[in-house]
Amino acid sequence: MRALLNAAKTGLAEIRRHKLRSALSFMSIAVGSVVFMDSFASIISVNDRLREQRRISGVARMEISPNYDQVFSDPDDYKPPPVIKYEDARRLRSELSDAFMVSAESGSEINVLEYGGRRMVARLNGVTPEWAKRDFTYGLKGRFLDWNDVEKNMRVCVLFRKAAPPPMNDFEKTQAKRWDYTRAFDDMVSRNDMLGRTVKLNDFTFTVVGVLQEPPESERPSLILPADRDYNVLAPVTTLGRYGFLNEEWNSVTIKVDAGDERAYYGTLRRVENFLRARFGAVEFFDIDKQMETINDTIAASVKNALMAMSLGMLAFIAGGIGIMNVTLATVFSRVKEIGIRRALGASRGDIMLQFIVEAAMLGLIGGLIGSAAGYIWGVHAKVMLGMDASPIRFWMPGVSVAIAVLTAFVFAVYPAWVAAGLKPADALRTE
Amino acid sequence: MSIVCSDLSKIYEGGQSGWPALRGVSFEIKPGEFVAITGPSGCGKSTLLNILGLLDEPSGGRYELEGRSVSEMSDRERSDTRCARLGFVFQSFNLLNRLSAVENVVLPMMHAGTPDAAARARARELLCRVGLKGKEKKTPLELSGGERQRVAVARALANSPRIILADEPTGNLDSVSSREVMEMLVKLNAEGITVVMVTHDRELAARVPRNLRMKDGRLEP
């Protein structure tokens, strides 16, 4: 222990004596630490997003919609996809009673909403209570749509209150003014307490039974596949059909199915395909968006990127290690006489090895500490300032990063230290 | 602590058959003796001293220190022996210039595992003994040649060795400093420490009770 402390003391003195050389060694190791911490954080980030995805959006999802891109060689072969009706969704629900969610949804982009004498454009989506089973990260004032609303075609609705948008520059404001055609609706909902009020939608009176508050940007969960938030008005899917909001010919219902469990996903998919085949004659009429595969592909790509970053970090560490090896070798050759003196005074080969390994490990330690601090500043502050997502730095990351830096320095110092220890005392003493 | 050498040889690598520095050197030094090894440059004096000090290994022959053959010692044992039983004084002082006088004297005690405070106290005491009181914090570069050699003597005494090996200890000193260092060695010998000194200075050698004269790697009869 004393030998270790003495070696550390000598190491510190050497670092102080050769400031530039030491600073360069610190930098080479610190770069490795920064890259390594960032790649660690990337992997953690993918993991966090996946956990959030499972919790909020689910990963065993698929979306069934009419396929308007069928491939056919003869124009007479083309058959327009059949319309999926709400009743089909109900039947599928009874077929998939063990599935977590079977949500029938429809939409109408341009609708006229009247309130307080003002007319504005609003997007209208027909949903069932199943809709709220996934991606539901909103604050709810009042109540959400229930099965009674759906079964009895009630003219009730839930309005979306958007979170305050992030600050916009002049150009973005101009673009928003020109293209955001539901801006008046958003303003109206944000400025009025709409709960319990009645609004007119395409001349039909609807009662607002609930208001969904979108969480601010900073509080939204970070997901692998971001949830769709482009909603204005939600009403029972049956009501929209009953009152002619949907064009029967084109506005087919979209069915979102969540098997609930990844293991049940492919079994559920097979049952969905069987249902579509039995009900409509062919699966090809429909486009089944396999979200689980998209999520898996995205995860694989993210992990690949993180591993690539980690291998870059390893390369940076190796480069830093080679730098330390070079510095340690240079130190050994510049201190041959000292090695001889120490050997004459009683230092063993082990003592000499320990001396140089400890000195190199200190370069690694200080470089690792600098790199960890820089990695934290980069991941938590600099990235945000540059408009990127902050890295999820965990308390153990700096520790692991420093440990790897020290280990790298240790490994790369073994050879120079072995060279130093192998010098014959008499030969070393003769060196000038 | 006796030194017994039998038929010691040392051949340095180089050329076809190497270069012989020692050719069958045999002698014995009894505990408490003061021996001067003399001879012209290149006769093998320093090589012999390095072997006696366990800084080098002989190519042949047998060297026994206190009845034990050094060729049977491990590196650790040789280091421990150098640390605890031998003290070195070199011609070029061989002090670490970045350390102070006291830190240089502490070094061998550090390797011997002496606690820091005790080592420093002893180092100060030894520096005082060699007449360097008040100069403990000076680095070798701030000291004269004679003072440096005194630091080296203090360092050699740090672990209370039984043998002091001095390689041309006055070689780089003026006559006054030479006399002082020589007096120091004589005094240490009088205290019972075996002193083996390599010198080519006949005048200095004349003051030593026993001389071993070397020529071409051999001891002259």
Radius of gyration of CA atoms of chain A, rounded to a whole number: 33 Å
N- and C-termini, Cα separation of chain B? 24 Å
What is the helix/strand order of chain A?
Answer: HHEHEEEHEHHEEEHEHEHHHHH
Number of domains of chain B: 1
Greatest contact between two chains: A-B, 22 and 25 residues
* Residue runs with pLDDT of under 50 for 5 or more positions of chain B: none
Strand order of the largest sheet of chain A: 2-3-8-5-7-6
Strand order of the largest sheet of chain B: 6-7-8-3-9-10
Oligomer: heterodimer
The residue fraction in helices of chain B comes out at: 25-40%
Characterize the overall form of chain A.
elongated
Secondary-structure content class of chain A: alpha+beta
CATH topology category name of chain B: Rossmann fold
Distance linking N and C termini of chain A: 32 Å
> In CATH, what is the class of chain B?
Alpha Beta
Number of domains of chain A: 2
Structural class of chain B: alpha/beta
Q: Characterize the overall form of chain B.
A: globular
